[in-house]
Amino acid sequence: MSEEDREPAPGRCVLVTGGSRGIGAACVSWFLANGDRVAYTARGPAERGDGSLGLVCDVTKPEQIEAAFAQVEERLGPVEVLVSNAGITRDTLIARMGEEVWGEVIDTNLTGSYRVARRAVTKMLRLHRGRIIFISSVGAFVGLPGQANYAASKAGLVGMARALAREVASRSITVNVVAPGLVATDMIEALAAERVEQMKGLVPLGRTATAEEIAAAVGFLASDGAGYITGAVLPVDGGMGMGL
Questions:
Q1: Residues of 174-199 as b/e, b for ≥16 C-beta within 10 angstroms?
Q2: Is 83 in a helix, a strand, or coil?
Q3: How confident is the model at residue 7 (pLDDT cuts 50, 70, 90)?
Q4: Which neighbouring-strand residues pair with 191?
Q5: What is the spatial distance between Cα 198 and Cα 90, in angstroms, rounded to a whole number?
Q6: Rama region for 12: left / alpha / beta (φ>0; ψ in -120 to 50; rest)
Q7: How would you class 232 by CB atoms within 10 Å of its CB: exposed for 0-12, middle for 13-18, buried for 19 or more?
Q8: CA–CA gap between residue 240 and residue 122 (Å, rounded)
Q9: Are 133 and 178 in contact (CB under 8 A)?
Q10: Distance in angstroms (rounded) separating the CA atoms of residues 47 and 165
Q11: How far apart (Å, rounded) are the C-alpha atoms in residues 48 and 183?
C-alpha cells in the first residue's frame, strides 16, 4: 500500500527539530495538545514521556537526518508538518570570529534547515499537502553586535523559505517563517541579568516572550486557517523589529 493510499491516522505527523527544550519543546507540546502525532529530534537522548517520539539527530549529519526521517515514517507515517527549529549561537565580534565558529553556526542553522526541508519535501510532494515552518529570529533584521554568523544564518532562512514556497505551492504545501524576539529560554538565562534588561529595553512590550507564545504562532501557521499563507515572515518579537 502506498503512503497516499494508507488509512489516515488521527491527527497529522509532525516533526520538530531541536525539540527537547525551549521553543522546540513548546512546539512539541502544542501539537500533542492539538491531537497530532509528534516526533522531535535532539542531539542527545531526551525522552519526554508524553507520547512523542524522541530521536537522536544532529542536523549537520545527513546520515542522521535520513535515519530520523526513516524512523518517523515507519512509526508515524510521512511528515506532514515540519518545524525546523534546531539552532545554535556562537556569539563573538567578527574581528575575532574564526571560520570554524562562522561555519558551525551556518551549517547548523541554515544548512541544517535545508537538509531537513529537502528530505520532508520529497514526501510532501507525493502527498500533495504539507506545512514547513522555519524558526528564524528578530536578530536577522535588527543586527545585534556579535551575531554576524547567527544573523546571516537566520536571514538566510527567509530567502530559502520564499524560494521554496514558490517551488511547492502548486502541491498545496506552504512554507513560512516565524521570527521570535527575546524569549525566556535557557539561551537567555545564560546571559548576565544586566544584558537581559538592556535587551528588554529594545522591546516595546517591555518583556520577554514565553516559548509557548512562539509555539502558538507556529501552530497557527500549521493550521487549516493558515492555508492561504505562504512565503510569509511572522514576527513574534513584542515589536522589537517593528519598522525594520
A1: bbbbbbbbbbbbeeeeeeeeeebeeb
A2: strand
A3: low
A4: none
A5: 20
A6: beta
A7: middle
A8: 36
A9: yes
A10: 33
A11: 22
pLDDT bin (cut points 50, 70, 90) of residue 6 is low
Q: Catalytic positions, please?
A: 150
- Give buried/exposed letters for 50-60 (b at 16+ CB in 10 A, else e): eebbbbebbbb
Among the residue ranges 95-99, 110-114, 191-195, 235-239, the one predicted with the least confidence is 191-195
pLDDT category, 18, cuts 50, 70, 90?
A: very high
- The three cell numbers of residue 99 are 571560520
pLDDT at residue 1, rounded to an integer: 46
* Total-model pTM: 0.93
Q: Tell me the β-bridge partners of 13.
A: 37
- Structural Rg of the chain based on CA atoms: 17
76: alpha, beta or left? (left if phi > 0; alpha if psi -120 to 50):
alpha
Q: What's the order of all strands across the beta sheet hosting 81-84?
A: 53-56, 37-42, 13-16, 81-84, 130-135, 173-180, 233-236
Grid cell listed for 238: 513584542
Q: What percent of the chain is modeled with pLDDT above 70?
A: 93
Cα–Cα distance for residue pair 240/244, rounded to 1 Å: 9
- Please report the domains of the chain, with CATH numbers, ordered by start residue: 13-236 (3.40.50.720)
The residue behind cell 500500500 is 1
